[in-house]
């Protein structure tokens, strides 16, 4: 549904309208130069109103550069607008002259212009004040109809949001995380080859004791020079955040298995994979996002149903 026209920047409004005027002017020049007369034709009849080829061409000019430029779809959109405007008239929901004048005044105020400046700005872009008001009146009317027949009455409750969350939990999953525990043998800064070999031997001896079944936590406290207070628990981390050497070794482990000794920049590690989890975004973090998505979905469905009703009650002859 088109947004309230008066909320658009004046420049954008002017440029959009200029495109259609430029097209008509171009056609006029071509006709004059060739000496021929190109007759307009009716491309659609909506009840007792017609849409001409030139109307469609103006619409194409307005939409030029946007993704939605299919000629047949543009005509369908124009038919839908005709139906909505007719429904507004039947329901007594037309925009009055006073409402239109107030809207124009508000737009001029937002752009810091008086009436003369506003009309001059439109004239510089080849748009008459009456053309501008006609477009604005239509957009105000369509917005009013949309609010009454589509937006009003649409609600999304917490139960719907929760149900959607539960049905689509996979959509809210975060990257896999693993929890490691380690026995760490720290190397001194600028360690000599002899110091590295000595520490590797100690790490290897500890790893062999782990393989033989000795208690991992006991070996953590016996050998680790850091992190022993946390029982060597490194907590949950995404694999990509691990040191590359540790990530490579952990990649092949199953829960409860160990690997080592692994040399990193700071020393040797013996690691045990404690847990693997795939966290999910908490419901409260995505609640508003889901609610908005469901609201938009309901609004689109309601809008389509309403248009189908209007079409069902109308006589439409699409001749394109």
Q: Could you explain how this protein is built, in words?
A:
This protein is of the alpha+beta class. It has 2 domains: 5-156 and 293-318, Orthogonal Bundle (Triger factor/SurA peptide-binding fold); 174-277, Chitinase A, domain 3, CATH 3.10.50.40. It is built from 11 helices and 7 strands. The protein has helices spanning 10-34, 53-63, 71-90, 97-110, 115-124, 129-151, 158-167, 193-211, 216-223, 244-250, 283-312; strands at residues 42-46, 49-52, 177-186, 233-238, 258-263, 267-277, 316-318. The strands form 2 sheets. A 4-stranded antiparallel β-sheet has the order 4-3-6-5, with helices on both faces. The protein has a 3-stranded antiparallel β-sheet with strand order 2-1-7. The chain starts with 9 loop residues before the first helix and ends with a strand.
Strand content: 5-15%
Name the structural class.
alpha+beta
How many H/I helices? 11
CATH architecture of the largest domain: Orthogonal Bundle
CATH superfamily of the largest domain: Porin chaperone SurA, peptide-binding domain
Share in helix: 55-70%
What integer is the average pLDDT? Answer: 84
């Amino acid at each position: 549904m088109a947004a309230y026209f008066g909320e658009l920047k004046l420049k954008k409004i002017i440029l959009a309208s200029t495109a259609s005027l430029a097209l008509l002017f171009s056609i006029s020049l071509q006709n004059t130069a060739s000496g021929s007369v190109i007759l307009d034709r009716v491309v659609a009849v909506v009840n007792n109103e017609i849409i001409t080829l030139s109307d469609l061409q103006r619409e194409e000019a307005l939409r030029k550069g946007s993704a939605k430029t299919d000629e047949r779809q543009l005509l369908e959109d124009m038919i839908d607008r005709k139906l909505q405007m007719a429904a507004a008239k039947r329901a007594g929901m037309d925009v009055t002259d006073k409402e239109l004048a107030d809207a124009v005044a508000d737009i001029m105020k937002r752009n810091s212009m008086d009436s003369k400046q506003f009309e001059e700005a439109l004239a510089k872009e080849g748009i008459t004040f009456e053309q501008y008001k006609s477009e604005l009146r239509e957009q105000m009317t369509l917005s009013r109809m949309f609010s009454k027949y589509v937006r009003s009455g649409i609600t999304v409750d917490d139960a719907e949001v929760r149900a959607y969350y539960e049905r689509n939990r996979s959509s809210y999953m975060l990257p896999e995380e693993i929890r490691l525990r380690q026995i760490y043998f720290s190397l001194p800064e600028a360690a000599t080859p002899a110091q590295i070999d000595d520490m590797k031997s100690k790490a290897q001896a500890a790893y062999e004791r782990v393989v033989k079944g000795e208690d991992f936590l006991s070996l953590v406290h016996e050998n680790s020079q850091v992190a022993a207070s946390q029982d060597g628990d490194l907590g949950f981390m995404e694999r990509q955040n691990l040191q590359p050497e540790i990530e490579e070794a952990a990649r092949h482990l199953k829960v409860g298995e160990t690997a080592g000794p692994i040399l990193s920049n700071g020393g040797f590690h013996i690691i045990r994979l404690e847990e693997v989890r795939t966290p999910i975004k908490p419901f409260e973090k995505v609640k508003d996002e889901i609610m908005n998505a469901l609201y938009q979905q309901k609004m689109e469905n309601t809008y389509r149903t309403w248009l189908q009703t209007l079409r069902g009650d109308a006589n439409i002859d699409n001749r394109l």
